[in-house]
Design brief:
Muramoyl-pentapeptide Carboxypeptidase, domain 2; alpha+beta; five-stranded mixed beta sheet
Length: 211
């Protein structure tokens, strides 16, 4: 069956330069996203072998964001809580060295930013996540995190159940209401607007080393 997609405007890496523009904002220390300051569940996928490289990319599981992104994450937490949901984070800040590892394993610009241009994750201003219900179960989104398939695109109608479509719309509604932009090819990925204003961050430069 062909996959039909409803086109949703949003960020895309297609047809953008392969060199990172000079950032307009300075490098600042990243904020660790952890309890009790942030009421989220953390399950960093790239600290395990459950990723496209089939081996851990990070030396330790840790979650960091730029202060601007941390503020908007807290806003999303606050919006989700009265509805009975919590956020589960799979990835946030991703050192540039880690982006190269992922790109070398699978250089697919539909799902990974070319590290020569730089990922919003490597600027500390992107987060990959899902919602948890009141029983701590992930909402069904139709595919798993990091499923590199057209079924992961926002707006897909064929092959995704109505319940999963509603869950995706719930997540995008919460995140955009909290001030996040989204990437149209990945239901799990959200980033700050104008992310290229923020500098790319090598491992250990703005947070304790992760690699």
């Amino acid at each position: 069956m062909a996959v039909h997609t409803v086109i949703i405007a949003g960020s895309s890496s297609v047809n953008t330069p392969l060199t990172a523009p000079a950032p307009s904002l300075p490098l600042v220390p990243l904020i660790e996203i952890a309890a009790p300051a942030f009421d989220v569940e953390i399950e960093i996928a790239y600290a395990t072998a459950q990723n496209i490289t089939e081996q851990p990319v990070y030396g330790r599981a840790a979650c960091y964001l730029h202060p601007d992104a941390a503020e908007k994450l807290q806003r999303a937490i606050d919006l989700a809580k009265p509805l009975g949901f919590r956020l589960k984070i799979f990835d946030a800040y991703r050192p540039t060295e880690a982006q190269w590892k992922l790109w070398n394993a699978r250089p697919d610009p539909e799902f990974l930013a070319d590290p020569r241009r730089g990922s919003p994750h490597s600027r500390g201003v992107a987060v990959d996540l899902n919602l948890l219900d009141a029983d701590g179960r992930e909402l069904d989104m139709g595919t798993g995190f990091d499923a590199f398939t057209p079924l992961s695109h926002h707006g897909v109608t064929d092959g995704i159940s109505p319940a999963a479509q509603r869950n995706r719309l719930l997540l995008i509604g919460l995140m955009t209401s909290a001030g996040w932009d989204f990437y149209r090819n990945e239901w799990w990925h959200y980033q700050l607007f104008d992310s290229r204003r923020y500098p790319l961050i090598d491992d250990g430069k703005a947070a304790p080393p992760m690699m």
